[in-house]
Amino acid sequence: MLLLEGAGFFLFNGVLEIPENRLYAAKVIFQCMVLSTFFGILSVPYNAVINAHENMFLVAVLGVLEALIKLGIALYVTNTSFDKLISYGSLMAVMAIILLLIRRVYCHLKYNEVTINVKKYFDRSLFKEMGSFAGWSFLGSSSSMIANYGQGIVLNMFFGPRVNAAQGIANQVSGQLSAFSTTMLSALNPGIAKSEGAGKRGSMLKMTAMGSKMSFFLLSFMCIPVLIEMPYILGLWLKDVPAYAVVFCRLLLIKNLIEQLSIPVSTSIKAVGNIRDFQIASSILTFFPLIISFGFFFLGYPPYFLYVVFIGYAILNSGLIFKYGNKYCGLALWSFIKNVVLRCVFSFLAVLLLSLIPQLVLDEDGIRLLIVTGSSGLFFIIIVYVIGFNKQEKNWLNMLLKSFAISLKEKLSIVKI
């Protein structure tokens, strides 16, 4: 909080370009962000306990509750006569506090180990190991946070708040489309950690490869029709679509797709626990996109070059993760690239190209959006099954579908009786 407050002093005194009549609202929003970050950090141990117990039911309930609260905030902000920006920021901070309190009360009541008892749990060697891990993790997470917030600051410095509006829309679209893959990874992460903890390295690597593939395919399924019909979708959603919003959204989704391939590998490296060199290298690499983007903007390049640079960063960072996955986890690089990366990329490109066909013969409207969505879903199922999965994965998928069909048939027969 001290670091953020110190940064805020400089940001609001000469760095950010904010209209004078909105400066107070911007400062209030910044304080709400600091408060939300504080309570977000406090909730980390409770999230860890929930994930360790694989309590996906609570994760789902909290996810639904968060969505309902956000809907309520949106309805309130739409109808209130009070400053809408201040209302939004304040209520989002309150939501972070409410969710923390629910997690805290639930964990203290449900799990015996969730208690503050220094004498009982004090273990110098364990604290030292956990402190080292937490310290290096903090280096990685803080550098990522600076890079993420830095994007908006750099764009604001060169192009003003209008371009920040386009960036905000891109982040909203990206966040919503990534929800399914993020939830799947949340359910997968405890399994990766437990497999490594039990000494089952081979099982962990299989889960890692399958997780990379499935998270990519889940996001691809959601992204492909949106990538194609982005101008029409944003036109339906927004009264006035900001300049660069469409290109920002498309480039950010491509960046996210690239990152999906390496996220489970990063989880595996953390499960092994030897993260110092990985976090140092990753943190150094994280700052380069901002520096390069600053240079491009200084030379007069358009704002979308920020995301072009970050796509390049996503590719380099994935390569770095694969390298350390090979070093610390025994990840077979060529096998992973051939079975996961290439299969995912070729499947995505094939579905994308086939789904573009309706654009060649139909005008932009709701009918074309429905046709693109339906055809991309059909192409996706066929191509991902043929290209995306290897023989072993197809056998596993066939067994899963067969058992599901038998179960469904039994339930239908019971209903008939």
TrEMBL record:
Keywords: Cell membrane, Membrane, Transmembrane, Transmembrane helix
Compartments, as annotated in UniProt: Cell membrane
Primary site of residence: membrane
Domain of life: Bacteria
Statement: the UniProt record of this protein carries the keyword Iron: no
Membrane topology: Multi-pass membrane protein
Bilayer-crossing regions: 24-44, 56-79, 85-102, 214-235, 241-258, 278-298, 304-324, 336-357, 369-389
Name of the featured protein: Polysaccharide biosynthesis protein C-terminal domain-containing protein
